[in-house]
Amino acid sequence: MASSFNSFLFFLAILVSTSYAQNGLVLPIRKDTNTLQYYTSIEMGSNRATVNAVINLGAQFLWFDCDDYTSSTYAPIPCDSKKCEIAKGIGCVGCNMPPRPGCTNNTCGASPYNPFQDVLVSQGFAEDTLYSKDRVEVPQFPFSCMNTRFLEGLASGTNGMLGLARTEISLHKQVANKLNLPDKFSLCLPSSGLGKLYIGGGSSSKSDVTKSLITTPLIINPVSTAPAYTVGDPSDEYFINVQSIRVQGEPLSVKSSYFTIDKDGVGGTKISTINNFTAVHSSIYKPLARAFVKAASDMKIKSVDAVAPFRACFSSSTISTASTGPSVPTIELVLPGNDVSWKIYGANSMFPVNKNVMCLAFVDGGSSPRTSIVIGAYQLEDNLLEFDLVSSQLLFSSSLLLQNKTCSRL
């Protein structure tokens, strides 16, 4: 009788786990106010070690500090294996110390990258079970270890980086493959409170916001933008086809060539969760700042001295407040289609540097950046973004404040 009861409980546990898995993973997103980085929490391995990982749309895989990591289900990925090929492992690494996570022989070579240190480290790929707080588990999840000394620059309390790039070993791809779900994920970065990262099924279908999302194609940069790559590899970051920019409805006078990607992979527009603020080519930034200052002046907003890294700053006392944040000129990223644009309102365009001054939260990316426009994380706050890799589309909301919502209230 006891045996039958235990079997029933086991069967019930499988049903519950499967039910959760069918909806994919839902991970919390927190904002670190010091670094302005955004991170989530997962658990790894048999001991369910907590990994607080900075979210990086451009990173190819998960890596975290393994110096104190122990797990009976940890397994290095061998060199010359099919899994190593899928991970695009580089060579073979070994270790002359006693075996432990992050130190094994005949292991598929990995190159975890810390963008805040701009350092690329030689490590090995491994796999272990990944668990989410909502009871979903992803077995044999590939990742790389990282040494503690290479965590510098990450938000306090974090110990890794979660890669969401367009790769076979990113979280969304692994969830899609192993849980038989569509390759989709949604990102909602919070200005405060908890945001959400939906993996495996897009955003919550219960939200009215999803019914009003705007769609634009995700495009492929033919040349990799990764810190290390093989010649001929396309970029696995997320690019969209911004064709022009408008300020308060007026288009900027900028050469169209700055908005396109050339044969060497230079130019275009990508989305980043690592850049704090949107960085634009100098030849775009200068007319953008001039147009914004002029339109602000027409609204009786007073300019003040610049505060680095910003160039266009204003007296807070001359700026009124609207439902979408500070009442300032609207910036539009114009996309293909009939009057399709990503509208950026005051909550995403103005950064309060102190109680008296707000600045235009765009920075000059220089005269020869690899990418002409890098949409930064501050511009993504309280915007719902759904990356549909099945149809290669980005679905976006613009500011949720327009609908009296935020990422923490979805």
Automatic annotation (TrEMBL):
Chief location of this protein within or outside the cell: secreted
Signal peptide positions on this chain: 1-21
Q: Keywords of this protein's UniProt record, alphabetized? A: Hydrolase, Protease, Secreted, Signal
Q: Which residues form the Peptidase A1 domain?
A: 38-397
InterPro entries from the entry?
A: Aspartic_peptidase_A1, PEPTIDASE_A1, Peptidase_aspartic_dom_sf, TAXi_C, TAXi_N
One Gene Ontology biological process: proteolysis
Highest taxon of the source? Eukaryota
Designated name of the protein: Eukaryotic aspartyl protease family protein
Give the species. Answer: Forsythia ovata
Recall the taxonomic lineage recorded for the source organism: Eukaryota, Viridiplantae, Streptophyta, Embryophyta, Tracheophyta
